[in-house]
Design brief:
Keywords: ATP-binding, Nucleotide-binding, Transport. This is ABC transporter ATP-binding protein. This protein is α/β, with parallel strands linked by helices. It has two domains: about 180 residues, P-loop containing nucleotide triphosphate hydrolases (Rossmann fold, 3-Layer(aba) Sandwich); about 70 residues, no CATH class. Helix content is about 30%, strand content about 25%. It has nine helices and twelve strands. The strands form three sheets. A six-stranded mixed beta sheet has the order 6-7-8-3-9-10, sandwiched between helices.
Length: about 260
Amino acid sequence: MTPTVALSGVFWGPARQPDILHDLSFAVAQGEVLAICGANGAGKSSLLRLLYRHQAPRKGTVQLMGRDLWQMKAPEAARVVAAVLQEQPTDFALTARQIVGLGRLPHRKGFGPGQTDTAMVEASLRRMDLTAFADRAFGTLSGGERQRVMVARALAQEPQVIVLDEPTNHLDIRHQLELLALLRGLGLTVITTLHDLTLAAEFADRVMILHQGRIIADAPPDQALSEAIIAQAFNVAAHVDRSGPAPRFSFQLHGH
C-alpha cells in the first residue's frame, strides 16, 4: 500500500536562516492517526506547514499518495489534504454554513455550488453537530463552536488527510474528547499536533516526538511517551503511571 503521506530526508528553515527541521523521514498509512508532540519551538507547526503545501522543503521530498506534493497544483493538493489551523477566518459576518462551503472550492466545477457541494456542506454540518448554528454569523459563535466549524469546513473538502494544529485548544474537556473520537471515526489519515500528552496517548495510533527539529521518537503511544523521552523532549522529570486504563503523566522540574 502506498502511504498517504511520506516525507523523505526533509530539511526546512526560513529564508536565509538555519534549518529548523532536520532530516525528517516518516510515512503515515491510510486511516492512521498520528499525534505530533514536543516543546514550543520544537518545529511542530513548521512540519504541519510542509504537509498542507504552505511551504516547500529546502531538501528532501513530501509525497501525497505517492506523488510529490510540489508537482501537484494547489487545488489538487487541497482535494487530498485539508488543514484546520489556529488562525480562524476574519470575516465574522459569514455564516457557519458559508464558511463550511469554502471547503468545497477545490471541487467546484463552473459557477457556484452544485448539488453535491450543498449535500456535502449539510453532511459536514450535521457531522460536527452544527445544524442548529448553520445560519448564525461566525462571529457570534463560541470558541468551541468556531473550532467545530473549521473542522466541518475541512470535512467538506472530502480530503484523504486532515492536518490539525492543536485542535483541542479552545474546547472544554467534553468537546475535546468528542472531537478526537469523531476524527478517529472518520477513517481518514489524521495528523495533529497535541500538547496534551494524555489525549495523545488515548487517541493516537502513533506518537511522534519532535525535539529541536528532529524526530526523537515515532512509535505507538506507550513506547513514544516514555519517561526518558518526555524528559528529553520537554526538559522535565516525568513520571508515567500505567496502573489505570489510560496512562497518567506527572511532571516536575529537574532537581525539585
